[in-house]
Amino acid sequence: MKHWCYDSVFYHIYPLGFCGGAKYNSFSSPAEFTLDKVYEWIDHFKYLGINAIYFGPVFESTSHGYDTVDYFNIDRRLGNNDSFARLVKYLHENGIKVIIDGVFNHTGRDFWAFYDLRHKLQSSKYKDWFTNINFGAKSKYDDPFNYEGWNGHYNLVKLNLKNPEVKKHLLDAVDSWIRNFNIDGIRLDTADLLDPVFLHELSEFCKNRKSDFWLMGEVIHGDYNKYACPGMIDSVTNYECYKGLYSSHADANYFEIAYSLNRQFGELGIYRNIPLYNFADNHDVNRVASSLSDKNHLFTLYTILFTMPGVPSIYYGSEWGIEGQKEDGKDDKLRPEIELQKMNAENRNPELTRHIARLSQIRKESNALKYGSYKQLYINHRQFAFVREYENETIVVAVNSANTAAFVNINVAGCKSGRGTNLLNNNELAVKNGNLSINNIEPYGSIIISI
């Protein structure tokens, strides 16, 4: 039986932005329950075919969420533990699974153990909880000791994951998330920096408590097999195809995404057995609509995203084609507050929203798109076709990124002569002697053919 992730369409929410939370935590104000706005989005999720949500950081933090202060309590700018437990329960009742961010590589400077170290110095019993503590030098914050920060950011203090006490604290936190919130999985921030022994112990710990628990790691570079393998985690972020999805359109070069898909999922594909987490944009990168000079390419891009192997994800707001770019190295424009009623009323690209909803429905009803093999059939700079097969089902996907119609003749050897149905519009196409002739792929058009 396939894991539930294969049947999932994810919706990624960065909570503090989505909810318009205060930029900095006062640590004294009462809970604000802003995340409860998710309740009014349930019908929208269902319209899009969403059956899994990835919530970015939700635990008490100093500012953006990745500077954790307390792993056991929901950030007061979003609500509290009881309100989040109710929300997860309601999402489950509506057929929507929930994964949350696990930020285990580092904490914020206000994390209670680091606070103790800052005040007690060498006498702190938590001095070994952090990496490369050096009392012979000062930090960039003028502490009378130095330490390692994530990627040179000293507001993010690197934890010592080889310390048994640190591992116990984190695993106790995860245990409380499963018991109190009944979450279905964790997205591991900076998974490629986490100690492999800790990853193995975390995986074993989670699967012992919930056998179908899903661990998905943020990995930007390197060999995904190093992390997503037996005894480790289940999936990683597919940054290779994230880049290929937009640049193959922006550069009129489908050879780029075709190369990646064949390398990853083809007959000799190195990631054929990994349900990679596929995305067009997220909280750390420019909105895909801002990466494309021709916004019509959003339609073919999302067609590929929803029909390629792996697990598709939509970043909140991108279903409306909203734009957003980093400014002066800051991510605020990528993480805006969004009000559903306003977005529906001002939707400037309703065709895109409908297209994504239809793609989600087609994927839901097709085992070939969820579980099937991948094989490239045709490739040109602006036209691309591939086939997905599973048991007795065959799906051919063809896209045309040009602003003119295209003719494509595709060899689908092994398919009997007959007719295929374009699932996007129910039009029929003929298959003769193993060839599928598509006389007219519309400009910026997509065809998903069930043969």
Question: What's the layout of helices and strands?
Answer:
Layout: E1 10-13, H1 15-18, H2 42-48, E2 52-55, E3 59-61, E4 68-74, H3 81-93, E5 97-102, E6 106-108, H4 112-120, E7 149-150, E8 153-158, H5 164-181, E9 185-188, H6 196-209, E10 214-217, E11 235-236, H7 239-250, H8 254-265, E12 277-279, H9 288-291, H10 297-307, E13 311-315, H11 340-345, H12 350-364, H13 367-371, E14 373-379, E15 383-390, E16 393-400, E17 406-411, E18 418-422, E19 428-432, E20 435-441, E21 446-450
Parallel strand pairs: 1-2, 1-13, 2-5, 5-9, 9-10, 10-11, 12-13
Antiparallel strand pairs: 3-4, 6-8, 7-8, 14-15, 15-16, 16-21, 17-20, 18-19, 18-21, 19-20
Description:
The structure is a single chain. The strands form four sheets. An eight-stranded parallel β-sheet has the order 11-10-9-5-2-1-13-12. It has an eight-stranded antiparallel β-sheet with strand order 14-15-16-21-18-19-20-17. The protein has a three-stranded antiparallel β-sheet with strand order 6-8-7, with no helix packed on it. It contains 13 helices and 21 strands. A hairpin with a 5-residue loop joins strand 18 and strand 19. The model has no long low-confidence stretch (mean pLDDT about 95). By secondary structure, it is α/β, with parallel strands linked by helices.
